[in-house]
Amino acid sequence: MERLLPFDPPAIGGHRLAVRLGAGGMGVVYLARSPHGAWCALKVIRAEYADDPGFRARFRREAELASRLTGWWTVPVVRADADADSPWLATAYVPGPSLAEAVARPGLWPGAQVRGLGAALAEALDGVHAAGLVHRDVKPANVLLAVDGPRLIDFGIARAVGATALTADGSVVGSPGYLSPEQARGRTVGPPSDVFSLGCVLALTVTGRAPFGTGGAAAVLYRTVHEEPDLDGVPAGLDRIVRRCLAKEPEQRPGARELLDVLGGFTPDGWLPEGLPARVAARAARVLELPVPEPTTVDGPSSVTVPEAPPSPTRRRLLVAGSALGVTAAGGAGAWWQWGRNRASANTGSVHRTRHVIALLGSPDDPFYAAQERGARLAVEQHNQDAGRTVDLVLRTADDRGTAAGSADAAVRLADDPDVSVAIATGSNATAPAALTPCKKARLTLLITRADTEKLNGVNTTTALLLRSTQTLGPHPVLRYLNRVVEPARTVVVHDLATEADSLPTVRIATIYGKLNNETAVEDVAADEDFTGFARRIAVRPRDAVLFAGTSPSRAAACARALRNAGHKGARVAGEHVLAAPFLAVGEGWRIGTGYIDANADSRTRAFAAAFRSRYERAPGPWAAEAYDAVRFAAHGLASIGDDGRSALRPGLLRKPWQGITRVMGFDAVSQYFQVEKDNGGFLYRVTGGTARFVARADDIGKQT
């Protein structure tokens, strides 16, 4: 428990807040007193999620589904409001530690107590499944221990039976280590998935070890799908039933009702191991010691004051920063952006032309910025030379200083300028995501050309559009190269834990989602290790292909060097983030998948490359053609909306695919994510003589590459 923060409201929906119970990515959970005096756990959803109408609809549905649960071992929903500025949900409060805390301290549970725990949780799941739900996140942290028995909590990601295990962005819902194989693969899940998760919980409780090990999430998921559980130490009486729960195929697992019959009934006397009853009682006593919040004054049903939930701390800081910047913007505008050399042409004759400003957001110090700025400027110049145009374009540049804070500051100022119709973020994974929130607030369309971090997975809830395939959607060029050209017996995926968060999407796509046709294996390499041990292990099978999933050029160089020294002979592939001097010096023969084309080497971009050389007396560099396409794509959308405001642009761009010189700009009608099935904008390069040389577009990869 933590005291309330200064920006926490005193009450929400008539519930008087006492303390914070916790906070996470989705929102904040408070301990609150209901209008009737009962303690409850009140979860408030962050404002950035609440702005998405689809999220509100899901939240309302899930609250309604959870309210169906009436079993003793689940925690009932007592009230919810999906229409509040920040939606909230209140459940009965269980004043006890979680099973995760209990297993960590004092330690392992005896077999008899584990059977009682399993019986209660099996009965809880039986009720969940009878209500037509699948919990999907059964884990020790979601089991609370009360004096009279356990309670299964947190139905925030519960779904109706038969729903997919994936979110719209392709990420797995649930917690690695407790996910079922079908959940890990992103397939449709049913009640057997919860039974598998319960088997993991029981195994951990009795042995103190996760049955599929620890380490990187991708490695744990891989073992869950492909390897047998570690059940050493599970008592003989429990081993058989836990092993059945952990069967790879859903139909081979017992149902919750059968599991309850096998484990026997729950007996409240002595169900907790020695030492835990005192801890549970102490946790309950802490609630009794809290001061009772001041009551809400109620004169009648219509006079209850329901304060709005506050904006999230992140959003609040941005609002404050935006206000402060607004005070100084008039005096300092010239320092943060520059007019382009091309001014919009005046309207002439009978042609009515609207004037639109396109702002290029990036840092002149970024090694890729100059190429993007020149490509964008060339697109504007060519557009304004077209006598039949209906819109005039002006290009401005906004300096993001190469930092997330600078990107957010620049985006706030762009959003506040009514002349700006669209912004193009040219920066990296470190800077582009920071521009999302200010642009979303102002309904300013943000086109993202280069960044591909998982932080951009939620762009469909903003005003942004991602104009490339990403690591999350899969490293298509190198996967296609392995599947269509190399066809190895096995591919070893190197999960570099030095860049674990960034490399995880590639590991997941290549292994868990089965995007490779051949056998796969995952090798975790710790951040403080070199790659010598890994290279020695793979030397036993020197023809295996290697997919390096990390993003550090120096770490990729160390991997390449170790493989070369160990005599590895198979194909070696990686993603674009490794392309820097350290890796290029030792990565001879590696194939690299990128999101940018070599405009000088592809037939569909040669006209652009010739115009670029004529205009700037140099060849276009990486990302120049992508920025050129981004401006042309924006112009296409601006022409379709006429005099309508900036908020009309993004829906216009989503209406139908548009063909650029680098790729087709097309988006899924439901999720609004970039379509990658055809002409997805992925490109294959080969490292030769210390340089990455263009090989083919992803769709053209075949036996000749």
Automatic annotation (TrEMBL):
Q: Domain Protein kinase: where?
A: 15-272
Annotated residues for binding of ATP: K43
Q: Which GO terms describe its molecular function?
A: ATP binding; protein serine/threonine kinase activity
Question: Which InterPro entries does the annotation name?
Answer: Kinase-like_dom_sf, Leu-bd, Peripla_BP_I, Prot_kinase_dom, Protein_kinase_ATP_BS, Ser/Thr_kinase_AS
Has keyword Transferase? yes
Chain segments carrying region Disordered:
293-313
Q: What lineage is on file?
A: Bacteria, Bacillati, Actinomycetota, Actinomycetes, Kitasatosporales
What top-level branch of life does the organism fall under? Bacteria
Q: Which family does it belong to?
A: Belongs to the leucine-binding protein family.
Which UniProt key words apply to this protein? ATP-binding, Kinase, Nucleotide-binding, Signal, Transferase
Q: What is the organism of origin for this protein?
A: Streptomyces spongiae
Q: What is this protein called?
A: ABC transporter substrate-binding protein
